[in-house]
Amino acid sequence: MPSIADSSGSTRAKNSGFSLIEVMIAVAAVTILFVLAGPSISRMLIERQVKETSVDISRSLTVAQLEAVSSHKTVRLCPSSDGQSCRNDGDWNSGWIVFADGNSDGEPDRTEILETFDSPNGQVEIRANGAFASEAAFTLNGIVADNDVTTGSFTICPSKAGAESTIVMLDQSGALQRRRDREGCTGD
Predict the structure, then answer these.
(1) In angstroms, how far is the first alpha carbon of the chain from the final one?
(2) CATH number of 19-71+120-181
(3) What's the whole-model pTM score?
(4) Which of 38, 97, 153, 182 has the most crowded CB, counting CB atoms within 10 A?
(5) pLDDT tens, position by position, for the chain (188 residues)?
(6) At CA 97, angle to CA 86 and CA 177, rounded to 5?
């Protein structure tokens, strides 16, 4: 170890590292920061996933509406766990697909699929209501009614209490609305 001479002429070893006490204080400070910031960071990440999922659903509905008008075909959104076929249970949490149903059979063929969306990673739950309970379908004239219901909504619920949910709605005129819900999905 190199030595350094001080003004009195004596030599001492050069200290070029941290003492054990300094390291322990630094680790304690970092630990305290993580404990304090952890819940906020977790909530922020969940709210980000809620927003991303609501944007994906909004984009899916918009693509379906525009494609139905431009192609004069029925365009459908349906829940899908494999990105190739529709689920019949109305569970949108495994992902979904958008397809132009050119042959009007209600099932996507490989050439009809416009977009696929993966599952939103377990941080959120998607609840579909009204005309979107099991699928969403659009024609040149607008949304296709499901059991005489001509409006629909998706509620994107966070996995953690306290985080805001988002509701994506489509009204009878075809106007898409997205709003945050401070109540979250409690009581549903």
Answers:
(1) 69
(2) 3.55.40
(3) 0.76
(4) 97
(5) 455 555 555 555 566 778 889 899 999 988 887 777 666 777 788 888 999 999 999 999 999 999 999 999 999 999 999 999 999 999 999 999 999 998 989 899 999 999 999 988 778 999 999 989 999 999 888 777 676 777 899 999 987 776 788 999 988 777 889 998 876 576 54
(6) 120
